[in-house]
Design a protein that fits this description.
By secondary structure, the chain is α/β, with parallel strands linked by helices. It starts with 23 loop residues before the first strand and ends with a strand. Strands 1, 2, 3, 4, 5, 19, 20 and 21 form an 8-stranded mixed beta sheet that branches. Strands 6-12-13-14-15-16-17-18 form an 8-stranded parallel beta sheet. Helix 1 crosses helix 5 and helix 8 packs across helix 9.
């Protein structure tokens, strides 16, 4: 699809910012919405100003005219749970996702070409799942004289060589396998790539996201995200909006700095917003640290409680008084109940992240006003084998998105990248089909309609309307006409952020 009137956008590097969007843009012959009518869509000042039949608007003086020739126009997509630094680094790490044992993972690290990570001097791998391995990871399996850092697929486990342990002052650790808080602290202590290198990788990752129709992310990186992203939008070409979360241990700093959830970050060109404060109630399924009502098979262990109910209520109350909302990480059914109890006690808005296993009686509690369930549909097909073993007999209420929706919950989709790829179509397709390969659907009763999935992947936007921000995605074909395999990989022709092209192909 081409137009003789269209020139490709230019990107100015002198200030690190993209050139300003055209003051006016006319998208001609756009099919607006799933199965929607063909319309001309006018954009001015970063907003949709008119949606009119083709015979009504002949053109807008001074506007850039782009003929979409019936391509589908939808609200731009969000990834409501990303770890930006981890995702950008994972794109360059050794892929351990296919390893079926600790020994096999260690062999992948030793393969020719599995060299040092750029800029860090570390050998880095990502994506191992040890919950079903017949053996256990141990530092003795890794090269002792080189720093090797292998990160579990859920970011809750890190496996370090002896040399890597020495780098962080943990040379006496018996196994080199650190979980939960020890894992986060170890990753934070490891030498990072140079700042300018890391920022460049993250900027590249935002451009890759824009190619998939993504216009925004909620970043849960374990860092001072407001400060880090403020620097990036000054110095890099950032292709998405970013909601900057605040790690729980930085709550006092956020209060002292006057940060409030939902406020724009000054001098960010409208790209940045202050996000919620992230607090952990439990761990994860793969590490068997998700806090559950029933024990894990063979261990008698219920998981790990990271924050007590009393501490969670106190933290939530303090944050709410200062205009800050909490995003509460809760994966096990007991952890989800603790999070819900806290929101009931404090009566404030906020988020519950993951909600992977929920008590049957608790689904209705997710319908409380102002509460968002941030879920990751691509995890369901990825975790099904582990869940079938470790949550045996309870999987009918695991990743139960249809039950959450039926109860009145507000869902927002994310990937938890790099736990799953930063790809909203992977999540949308997984939510609709409940599988990601040739296997039959896993608990197909929990599938959700495509329209609902698209809205959950667009931060609640379900249609393109006059007055909306011109944060839009253009697809070659209507997603409702695509078979499941193609729904996971639709052709994105263009992405607009406040009327500015962040991705453009064949238009």
């Amino acid at each position: 699809m081409t137009s003789p009137h269209v020139s490709k956008p230019s990107f100015e590097r002198s200030s690190g910012r993209r050139s300003k969007p055209p003051s006016r843009l006319l998208l001609r012959n756009a099919r607006v919405g799933l199965g929607g009518p063909v319309r001309h869509v006018s954009i001015e000042g970063g907003r949709v100003t008119a949606i009119e039949p083709p015979g009504v608007v002949a053109g807008i003086e001074g506007a850039e005219n782009v003929d979409l020739q019936g391509a589908t126009l939808l609200p731009g997509l969000w990834d409501a749970h990303v770890h930006s630094v981890q995702w950008a680094r994972a794109r360059r790490r050794i892929d351990l996702g296919g390893a079926r044992s600790a020994v096999e993972a260690s062999r992948l690290v030793r393969l020719p070409g599995a060299g040092e990570g750029p800029g860090s001097g570390l050998i880095e791998g990502f994506g191992f799942r040890d919950a079903l391995w017949p053996d256990r990871p141990d530092k003795s399996l890794l090269p002792a004289d080189h720093p090797v850092v292998l990160i579990g697929n859920d970011l809750h486990t890190v496996w370090l060589s002896q040399a890597a342990l020495a780098l962080i002052g943990r040379g006496d650790h018996p196994t080199g396998v650190l979980r939960e808080r020890e894992c986060y602290d170890a990753l934070a202590a490891l030498p990072p790539p140079p700042r300018e290198v890391m920022d460049g990788w993250i900027a590249e990752a935002t451009v890759a996201a824009a190619r998939l129709g993504v216009i925004g992310v909620l970043d849960f990186e374990f860092a001072d995200n407001v400060t880090e992203w403020s620097r990036r939008v000054r110095e890099q070409d950032v292709a998405v909006r970013v909601v900057c979360s605040i790690p729980g241990h930085r709550l006092d700093d956020a209060i002292a700095g006057g940060l409030r959830t939902g406020d724009p970050v000054p001098d960010s060109g409208g790209l940045l917003e202050v996000g919620p404060v992230k607090v952990f109630v439990d761990g994860s399924l793969n590490t068997r640290t998700a806090y559950c009502d029933e024990p894990y098979p063979g261990s008698g262990d219920l998981g790990r409680l990271e924050t007590s109910p009393e501490e969670l209520v106190a933290t939530m109350s303090l944050a709410a008084r200062r205009g800050l909302q909490l995003a509460v990480h809760a994966i096990g059914d007991h952890a989800s109940a603790i999070a819900l109890d806290a929101f009931d006690a404090v009566g404030c808005p906020g988020r519950i992240e993951h909600a992977q296993l929920v008590r049957a009686a608790d689904f209705a509690r997710f319908a409380r006003p102002g509460l968002v369930a941030g879920v990751q549909p691509a995890h369901a097909p990825g975790d099904r084998e582990v869940a079938d073993v470790h949550w045996r007999g309870r999987t009918s209420r695991a990743y139960a998105y249809a039950d959450l929706l039926a109860a009145g919950a507000a869902l927002e989709f994310g990937s938890d990248a790099p736990v799953a790829p930063l790809d909203p179509w992977d999540g949308i397709a997984s939510a609709v089909t409940r599988t990601d390969d040739e296997r039959p659907a896993w608990h197909p009763e929990q599938a959700v309609p495509l329209r609902t999935a698209l809205a959950a992947a667009a931060r609640g936007r379900s249609a393109v309307r006059e007055g909306d921000p011109a944060d839009l995605v253009i697809l070659e074909r209507d997603p409702s006409l695509l078979p499941p395999a193609e729904l996971r990989r639709p052709r994105v022709l263009g992405t607009l952020l406040a009327g500015r092209w962040t991705h453009r192909e064949s238009l």
